[in-house]
Amino acid sequence: MSKKVRLAIVGVGNCASSLVQGIFYYRNRKKEEYEGLMVPDVGGYGPGDIEIVAAWDIDERKVGKDVSEAIFAPPNCTTVFYPDVPKLGVKVRMGKVLDGFASHMSSYPRDLSFVPAKEKEDELEDVVACLKDVQADVLINYVPVGSEESARFYATACLKAGVAFVNAMPTFIVSDPEWGKRFLEEGIPAVGDDIKSQLGATILHRTLVQLFVDRGIPLRRTYQLNFGGNTDFLNMLERNRLKTKKISKTEAVASLLPYDIGEQNIHIGPSDWVPWLKDRKIAYIRLEGEHFGGVPLSVEVRLEVEDSPNSAGSAIDAIRCAKLAKDRGIGGPLISISAYTMKHPPQQFPDHVAKQMVLEFIEGKRER
After folding, report:
1. Which one, of 231, 192, 228, 238, lies nearest residue 99 by Cα?
2. Can you name the residues that pair with 273 across neighbouring β-strands?
3. Bridge partners, residue 59, by sequence
4. With pLDDT > 90 as the criterion, what percentage of the chain qualifies?
5. If you ran DSSP here, which 8-state letter would residue 168 be given?
6. Residues with Cβ < 8 Å from 318, sequence gap 6 or more?
7. Number of helices and strands in the chain (H, E)
8. How much is the average pLDDT of 23-41?
9. What's the longest Cα–Cα distance across the chain?
10. Does residue 2 register a pLDDT over 60?
11. End-to-end CA separation in angstroms for the chain
């Protein structure tokens, strides 16, 4: 059993930047200083045990650069909390463009948008060969929202290369029964879909909904409005790329309700892009219900977070659980860690239940 988690990354954007910075931030700390983690130890794997062995992107400012440089290249704008990431000796390869590029992105100033590199794109067999060559354990998919073909392209590469797959974006792969069956039959672990931040709008909204349910308050109407300044929000201005994202975020909240409030009474999703916010994300959440005697009650919350480190806090657990499953010869969708770290897992559970399931999985008391 390898003492390292050999990780491949697709999409070297803000989320990848925070993840890579975090690996070295924690690698240089003692275990008793592991603050800010949901699960400090995953079957003997700490956050610093992750090694980057391959990476793909399509931005001309990132392709061909060492990952340690590419994570700080524009249009990345997340907080630099660990600037001393050393040279990794891993160059960013030119990925397959497919639908990973929204056409409107090229119309913005270069510090905000991107243009695909003119390098030769890696075909499926190139990706598979690279994953095998570097002996990758896990691949995390960070392609932009709406990149349905691209997400399936890299999922297929994992199936062919025998590499565990973590799907951090809202294309339904791990939660799709047919895809789930393929990963199960090939004996390859999969975690997904659509990363749920460590403490973001979705987890906060879910917690408030669960509170309504637990305290006997019928929920009548609710909304969650999100906006931010990173390229994820810019990319989502093309509304036809938002279908699965809206489904994912809505189901993550609605799944906790033991009754149907009607789709017209629940609105959840990104609303706009404000460039000067950079990687900050702001969410407004409102819940309306009725307490004793049918008397109205409402709750309003404003949440402000740095979006990408928030995502990395969940990703670092998903990656290590995928590796642990691989060590144990477990294939197929990993139900527990998917429910804990993803908005659209194969099965939804209340978050406190999902956390206990993850701990049982790590201890070997639960298969998946």
Report:
1. 238
2. 228
3. 116
4. 83
5. -
6. 140, 166, 168, 191, 195, 337, 338, 341, 342
7. 11, 11
8. 92
9. 67
10. no
11. 19
Q: Taking a C-beta distance cutoff of 8 angstroms, is the pair 358, 320 a contact? A: no
Given a contact cutoff of 8 angstroms between Cβ atoms, the answer to whether 121 and 95 are in contact is yes
What rounded mean pLDDT belongs to the chain? 93
Q: What is the pLDDT of residues 179-233, one digit of tens each?
A: 999 999 999 999 999 999 999 999 999 999 999 999 999 999 999 999 999 988 8
Identity of the amino acid at 120? K
* Residue 352 CB contacts under 8 Å (≥ 6 apart), including other chains: none
Give 299-367 as a DSSP string.
Answer: EEEEEEEEHHHHHHHHHHHHHHHHHHHHHTT--EE-HHHHHHHBSS-SS---HHHHHHHHHHHHHTSS-
From residue 67, alpha-carbon distances to 2, 72, 196 in Å are 23, 9, 24
Task: Give the integer Cα–Cα distance in Å for 34 and 38.
Answer: 10
Query: Are 142 and 16 within 8 A, CB to CB?
Result: yes
Q: Which two tokens stand for residue 285?
A: 């959440």
Helix (H) or strand (E) holding 201: helix 201-214
Q: Tell me if 337 sits within 8 A of 321, measured CB to CB.
A: yes
The one-letter amino acid code at 5 reads V
- CA dist 347 and 336 (Å) reads 9
Position 107: which residue type?
A: S
* Region label for 64, one of left (φ > 0), alpha (ψ between -120 and 50) or beta (otherwise): left
